[in-house]
Automatic annotation (TrEMBL):
InterPro entries: CdaR-like_regulators (IPR051448), PucR_C-HTH_dom (IPR025736), PucR_C-HTH_sf (IPR042070). This is PucR C-terminal helix-turn-helix domain-containing protein. Transmembrane segments: none annotated. Pfam families: HTH_30 (PF13556). It comes from the Bacteria. Residues 27-82 form the PucR C-terminal helix-turn-helix domain.
Length: 93
């Protein structure tokens, strides 16, 4: 069963997304980005960082995966990857 779900996952979003989410800062940036209704400004305020830092991290997703945080379909795939990682963290605790 695990093998089947892994095949399905790889079709939803690029594997590189899983690697990016291993980075704590990237994980927290994405978490806050969705908490703040996809607002870079509010995300930067919540993380106490510069908006360009948030943009840089989100651009890293595009450079590594081709997923653009400004496009609805791509945001959805980023969110799926994030939720999958979040659930894995919860299950491991």
């Amino acid at each position: 069963m695990k093998k089947l779900s892994r095949v399905q996952d790889s079709r939803l979003y690029p594997e590189e997304m899983d690697q990016l989410l291993e980075n704590h800062e990237m994980f927290e940036t994405i978490r806050e980005f969705f908490r703040q209704n996809e607002s870079v400004k509010k995300t930067s305020q919540a993380l106490i960082t510069h908006p360009n830092t948030v943009r840089y991290r989100l651009e890293m997703i595009y450079k590594r995966t081709g997923l653009d945080y400004r496009l609805t379909n791509d945001k959805f795939l980023i969110y799926i990857a994030f939720i999958k990682k979040l659930l894995a963290k919860v299950n491991n605790e």
